[in-house]
Amino acid sequence: MLRSLRFALAPVLSFAATSLAAPPDSLTDGDFHGQPALVMSNDKIELKILPLGGAMVSLVLKDDAEKMNPMWDSFRADIEAGKPIRQGGSVGHFVCVDGFGPASPTERATGLPGHGEAHTLPWVKQSSSKQGGVASITQAVQLPRVHEVLSRTIEMVDGENVVYVRSKLRSLLAFDRPICWAEHATIGSPFLERGVTVVDMSRNRALTRPHSEGKRPWRYRLASAAEFEWPMAPTLEGGKVDLRAAPKPSHSLDHTGHLMTARDHAFVTALHPEKRLLLGYVFKTSEFPWLQIWESYPPQGMMARGLEFGTQAFDLPRRTVITDNRIFGELLYRWLPANATIETSFLMFWTRTPDGFAGVSDIELKAGKLHIRDELSRRSMTLEASQPF
Predict the structure, then answer these.
(1) How far is the C-alpha of 245 from the C-alpha of 249, rounded, in Å?
(2) How far apart are CA 339 and CA 51, in angstroms?
(3) Cis-peptide, bond into residue 249, ω within 30° of zero
(4) Are 94 and 53 in contact (CB under 8 A)?
(5) What is the C-alpha to C-alpha distance for residues 216 and 227, in angstroms, rounded to an integer?
(6) Segments of 2-132 assigned E as strands
């Protein structure tokens, strides 16, 4: 069945690929740790995208001599650990669709991986262009086990520090069904520095992930299934801890889930105040009502912190998500109608901040600009964001 489905889809993707115009100067071929990568850039920023798995793995400022990349570089972690570099999969910002969490035993038996198929398969470049200062690339990937096609368009505008991402998920089946989708945005060392780099987010209702003590590489530091007010989370010892920055020293791995209760748009940001570098995401709460923060803080080596916005509170098996149904009254999945397409869009930005900038209190998208405010330092900044979103 999988072979016949691939055959049926291949003409669709191949036909789109043959209609490519000459690639613009803003899109070139490159590499990431020896792996093929597409390099998309303007005069402000440069983004690297892996054709295998579609992950956005590197985002740097063009005028940054250090070329600091905020993304979690699991390839470098493999190299430092003396392991072979993993192919596709979990690196940088990848997409989890259809599925966000481990596969069940029966799903694994069919070859379905955890976090869905999209992050493990080759993506076809369907088109690329540049018009009026706007560079664009569209990619697509067929998901044969769940009978879906995912397409994604990424845009950059000259003079802007913003990346625009618009995706479509098409069902090839004749019945409505629930789907699980998360944008697995993840930051890592050295941008993620113990006690320095801080994470902020828009107004939310927060919960620690339910857990029980057992065999695991690092300990829990947060209480199980406890509601709290961000950023002060309850600990196993009965105290509270500020989650904005990674602890030092550290030896823990925890998750928190956040129902984004702000306006139509929510945000999550990561700031290195000493380097004055800020990564941010703005997304629609109607499409991605949940944010999961994943904190991987080993005692030594690279740290990782997920800023994962999606359709569910935690990365859990499909059966668990659909059976649980809701948290705080909010649905934990999204419906994909029969033979239909659903869409999502978000933007990400990477920029320097003013001196003394200590965090992000609010982000407002208004009249083609991102207005970013820090109440701690009483400073603010504005970024051009001209594209509709």
Answers:
(1) 12
(2) 26
(3) yes
(4) yes
(5) 23
(6) 27-32, 35-41, 45-49, 56-61, 94-97, 124-131
Task: Please provide the distance, in angstroms rounded to a whole number, between the alpha carbons at the two ends of the chain.
Answer: 38
The DSSP code sequence of 254-300 is: EEEEEEE-SSSEEEEEEEETTTTEEEEEEEETTT--EEEEEEEE-SS
Average pLDDT, the chain: 92
pLDDT digits (tens, 9 = 90+) for 224-267: 999 999 999 999 999 999 999 999 888 999 999 999 987 899 99
User: What's the pTM?
Assistant: 0.93
The CA distance from 8 to 158, in Å, is 39
Q: Give residue 108's pLDDT.
A: 95
Cα–Cα distance between 306 and 261 in angstroms, integer?
20
Q: How far apart (Å, rounded) are the C-alpha atoms in residues 330 and 326?
A: 5
Do 294 and 257 contact (CB within 8 A), yes or no? no
Q: Residue 72, SS3?
A: coil
The Cα–Cα gap between 230 and 192 comes to: 19
Query: Does position 83 have pLDDT exceeding 70, yes or no?
Result: yes
Q: Please check the confidence at residue 63 and state whether its pLDDT lies above 90.
A: yes
Beta bridge partners of 278: 271, 351
Calpha distance 186→95 (Å, rounded): 11
Q: List 27's β-bridge partners, or say none.
A: 40
Nearest-5° Cα angle at 386, 385 to 389: 80
